[in-house]
Amino acid sequence: MSPNLTYVAVVGVLFAAGVILLLERSLTRVLMGVVLLANGVNVLILAGGRYGGPPIVGTTPDDEMSDPLPQAMILTAIVITLGLTAFLLALAYRSWRLVGHDEVQDDIEDRRIVELAERDAGPEVEDVDDEAEAP
Amino acid sequence: MTALVPLPVVIPLLGAAVTLMLTRFPQAQRLVSLAALTGVLGVSAALLVVVCDDGPQVVAVGAWPVPIGIVLVADQFSALMLVVSAAVTLCVLVYSIGQGMADGGEDTPLSIYHPSYLVLTAGVTTAFLSGDLFNLYVGFEILLVASYVLITVGGTEDRIRAGTTYVVVSLLSSLLFLTAIGLIYAAAGTLNMAQLAGRLDALPDGVRLMLNCVLLLAFGIKAAVFPLSAWLPDSYPTALAPVTAVFAGLLTKVGLYAIIRVETLLFPGGPTRDLLLVLAMLTMLVGILGAIPQTDVKRLLSFTLVSHIGYMLFGIGLSNELGVSSAIFYVVHHITIQTTLFLVVGLMERYGGTTALDRLGGLAALSPLLAVLFFVPAMNLAGIPPFSGFLGKLGLIEAGAAAGGGLRWALVAAALATSLLTLYAVARVWNLAFWRRPVRTAASGPIEGAALPRLMVGATVALLVLGVALTGIAGPLFDLTGDAAADLLERAPYVDAVRGEGVR
């Protein structure tokens, strides 16, 4: 069985758009990226199963049935994504209430350590400048 | 005795439902949580005994035949993981109850804490018992969703910032895992792991390698393997002390469990072995070098956590029996020790008012008990004999030396260097926080009237004793992990047990 080209193209577009949005600073855009990626994955799973008529015994001959397992998996994945989208929205809202924006921030400790390193390196650089200017 | 298998999942989920109904009665919530986790510990211990005597236990959920239904499988490896995780979650629960009682319920536990904690436990046990890749994904999601709630509990600015990083990175890894599941289903037509073991072998090498790499990428993020580990030290330290402790102990290890399962059962002897070894070396060295300059004890320990993931990867990458056996032993050791250390840091924060190393000082004189509580697991982590950290590292290094070859010897050297640097990092904490004279600044010194609540100390001591006891039972434990590793590498016991349930 070869995969349907339409599915493959849709998956590619959804993944590309999702990744670009995921790289943004604003949490709302990140959220959109996650939603697009999740839908891309769902289409990917759908493309992995056999397609055909409704998988109900008596309605469709056995060899023309679609594969119901990927559809069941996608349903589960959709429910999980729904819950997580709600949670991310709540996070973005809380962030907006607290700091007035929903941008993902740099880690404070990381910045502190960079500042410490700069402070350690600082005086030496100045000394060199002093010596250069002295004569 | 297959009736025991679903219980570690069912008990905490039921407990979560009951505690959710009891949100107005904190005392009853505590009792239900305690009873549920004690029950999980008891069932897991019984399961371990049964599995050791009778071989892997399999349950087809809802009596649906495989591959339409899902199987839960308990072999020696997963039963051992269940016992250790149940013991650790129980101790951390007692600790957080102690903390909640001491604080009078102001800060913790919020009414949502107990249900989330039990759901987290259910997710961890689901992941350990799952015999189906999609069910493993669901297990991961259950534990992650609970962890999102726990890491942002209270919703302060710091926790929202750290939680955002954590949630987005975890979401991405889950999506990668789901992608891998979709691809594997398309390639093999099943997600039952025992069935996959046979069918994946028949696939072309290129396809197998691709599937293996996508799975490793997803689990590598969860297990905090080096190039994918940057999220961990940024997100864990801001959570509540018991939450950080249980995350540090368990969550990365669930990722490692998945890596071990996938590498031994689904893709044995693949070309990813050397890749894993290189990643193990980088994880060890970069992690520990990150730990050394840290000025905050929690962040320092988070970096050692990342670093020591490398040891377990080392064992998996060797993929000989001694290597995998030592890796499993190291997982057991590391879950216990890392959790203990984070609990002790929680006590230090209560007593000294901060976890910043430049403001702590003189704790050894002020509280000798706290000093002992930190010193023993710290030495255990660094691998000082006779503690279990030494035994685990010894096993790994022996396995590396037995396998031979340039890369493996380089890893042995890296493992020894990491052990030494870990000793340096924890000795630095010891010197600054415990040994030197108290720093006299406005914000330092013990908080007036700060006492260590008995329940919190009791829970920490219990875990510490468990960590030390690992040395005492190291012989039988190594026998057990050896058997588990042999079964994992042989694959047949697992596959045959599931096949007995009607898998074709």
Automatic annotation (TrEMBL), chain A:
It comes from the Bacteria. It is a multi-pass membrane protein. The chain crosses the membrane at residues 6-23, 30-52, 72-93. It is found in: Cell membrane. One of its GO terms (cellular component) is plasma membrane. Belongs to the CPA3 antiporters (TC 2.A.63) subunit C family. Keywords: Cell membrane, Membrane, Transmembrane, Transmembrane helix. This is Multisubunit sodium/proton antiporter, MrpC subunit.
Automatic annotation (TrEMBL), chain B:
One of its GO terms (molecular function) is NADH dehydrogenase (ubiquinone) activity. It is found in: Cell membrane; Membrane. Its main location: membrane. The keyword Membrane applies. The chain crosses the membrane at residues 31-51, 80-98, 110-130, 136-154, 166-189, 209-232, 239-260, 275-293, 300-318, 324-348, 360-387, 407-430, 451-474. Residues 130-412 form the NADH:quinone oxidoreductase/Mrp antiporter transmembrane domain. It is a multi-pass membrane protein. Keywords: Cell membrane, Membrane, Transmembrane, Transmembrane helix. GO terms for biological process: ATP synthesis coupled electron transport. Pfam families: Proton_antipo_M (PF00361). Belongs to the CPA3 antiporters (TC 2.A.63) subunit D family. This is Multisubunit sodium/proton antiporter, MrpD subunit. It comes from Asanoa ishikariensis.
